[in-house]
């Protein structure tokens, strides 16, 4: 074909080709990844589970376990502890006390338990920013206690498990910080007539860390450690609910 005839054909076909491209692109499905940066406390973690949880009956002695990896690992390593009981585990690994405070309404109050076990502080202490103090941890704990009480939920506060050293924070004086926090928690419990659940004493070794035979990494209990925790937890729950 001569060039004089080919050029008009090309010019005429260009708009058709462009329209076809536009039509093809308009039919493509664009997947937009949801941005959860505003959900700093990870409310979505248990959002779906809470929706399908059966409402608590008036006489149910439901207990919520609110904390971080110590509680979340418990139901993974020893799931049978939570079977056939009214124990609701709401632990999220890595969470600090202000995140627990934000979650308190969704993961505790709205579930209408008779009691809540609050285990908080270790991840705050293990943080790397240096802005956390035991007083700030206690402020968050106190706010959770006040929220529980106004909603007629009995409170069990935990003396934190012993930690000699965090594997991810070598050189930090973890043991002294944990002991100092536990001293504040015990004083607050006594002053406000709460139940103290002492996870420190039965797990501690001579260095104020966790006994080797009871821990995975010096921070988290193993199955043997959880068995000890289970016994004293059941005792604390019975004591609290029978008051």
TrEMBL record:
Top-rank taxon: Bacteria
SGNH hydrolase-type esterase domain boundaries: 71-228
Signal peptide: 1-18
Keywords from the named record: Signal
InterPro entries assigned to the protein according to its UniProt record, in alphabetical order: Ester_Hydrolysis_Enzymes, SGNH_hydro, SGNH_hydro_sf
Name of this protein: GDSL-type esterase/lipase family protein
Source organism (scientific name): Mucilaginibacter aquariorum
